[in-house]
Amino acid sequence: MSVKNRKYGILNILDIYIIRKLLATFLLAIGLIILIVIIFDLSEKLDDFIYNQAPVKGLIFDYYLNFVPYFVNLFGHLFFFISVVFVCSKLAARTETVAVLSSGISFARFLWPFILTSVLIGLSNVWLSNIVIPKVNKPRLEFEKTYYRNPYHNQFYNIHIQTQPQIQIYVQHYNNQTCTAYKFTQELIKDRHIVRKTSAEKIVYDSLSKDWIMYNYHIRDINGKRETVTTGNEKHIDIGLLPHEFNLNQIKTEVLDYSQLNATIEREKLKGSSIVEELKVEKYQRLLNPIAYIILTIIGVSLSSRKTRGGIGLSLALGIMLAFSLIMMMKLTKVFATNGTLPPVLAVILPLVIYSIIAGVLVLKAPK
Q1: Ordered strands of the 193-206 beta sheet
Q2: Domain end (from 246, 266, 301)
Q3: 20 to 30 A Cα–Cα from 222, which one of 17, 177, 213, 264?
Q4: Do residues 9 and 122 share a domain?
Q5: Residue 215 counted as domain residue
Q6: Are 63 and 143 in contact (CB under 8 A)?
Q7: 184 and 57 housed in the same domain
Q8: Has residue 350 been placed in a domain?
């Protein structure tokens, strides 16, 4: 192999050395923190697991084994960033970075193995987020619901749902335990006019007939100036909804793969749901996560490639502060998007753009 190839090949000895160190540090760091988190989680929930007689096999394979990819995906970018800072600081402390840059290799070429690894980890994050984790989350959440956490209670009032383009449904309150909706109203609209309005004191889901039963109902059929009113004590009705679909704010995005998430967004749009923006933010975050890995990697290498007397402490502290500030900004812009202040795609891209600029500035100030 020529000197030129050793310096500028797609993968040379230095690249492989850095990639191996980076992956080993990342796996060690994420493995240790997962072990600590599992111990703390088990100590907190052990009494409930014992009281509810949770099976040991289910605890290991359905709950904690499926917890690992979920946790890796949730905090992977932070621990990968810490791994980048640690590895790069070690190289700088042993003056290996100085030797590499002094040999004629540019800082951009020195960045190459770090960026390549971040892209690979980021793409695996996309695969985990959109395909793997939704599948493994189902048994994990079901186990948690059965043996630890009580079923959710819907406390939301004034629920508006559009089941079809011409049908609007309103309930004042819905009880998910009894599958009962109170103060029910259904409006059929044609040419911007209400042609039928059905109201009832309450409707209850009948699991045998797979439809709903109205109690103390009134049906008004309107044809121009003519109006027909039908009343009764009890009547079956098909409202085009299943009981769980009243739980507008109980959709668990962590069990939805990419295609299911898109289908849910379209369905909630039709209903006029208030969580559409939140679902869109979740979709864009799943797709754009690799960019955050790359940005944090560039920031980490730029901060820690210079040899300092204080060792890796200062670089690590400053890097973690920047990483946490990026995470906080992502959460903040998500809140703005959920409240309708920012478009969802802008809420996801804006923090990445800001920290891309910070990364660019740090690269310019990095040792060459």
Answers
A1: 157-164, 167-175, 180-190, 193-206, 211-223, 226-237
A2: 246
A3: 213
A4: yes
A5: yes
A6: yes
A7: no
A8: yes
- Over the stretch 196-227, which tens digit does the pLDDT of each residue have? 999 999 999 998 888 899 999 999 998 888 88
Which domain does 52 fall in, by range?
A: 3-149+276-365
Query: Average pLDDT for residues 60-71, to the nearest whole number?
Result: 89
Angle CA(365)–CA(291)–CA(306) in degrees, nearest 5?
Answer: 25
Confidence of residue 10 (pLDDT cuts 50, 70, 90): low
Computed on alpha carbons and rounded to an integer, the radius of gyration of the chain in Å comes to: 28
The tokens of 319 are what? Answer: 């890097």
Q: Quick: pLDDT tens for 284-330.
A: 999 988 899 999 999 989 888 877 665 566 767 777 788 888 888 98
Q: How far apart are the first and last CA of the chain?
A: 25
- Tokens read off for 295: 């940005």
Residue 159: how many other CB atoms lie within 10 Å: 20
Instruction: Give the closest residue to 34 by CA, choosing from 59, 60, 70.
Output: 70
Model pLDDT, residue 8: 45
d(CA 74, CA 125): 9
Same domain for 145 and 162? Answer: no
Tell whether the model's pLDDT for residue 140 goes beyond 50.
yes
Token pair for 321: 């502060």
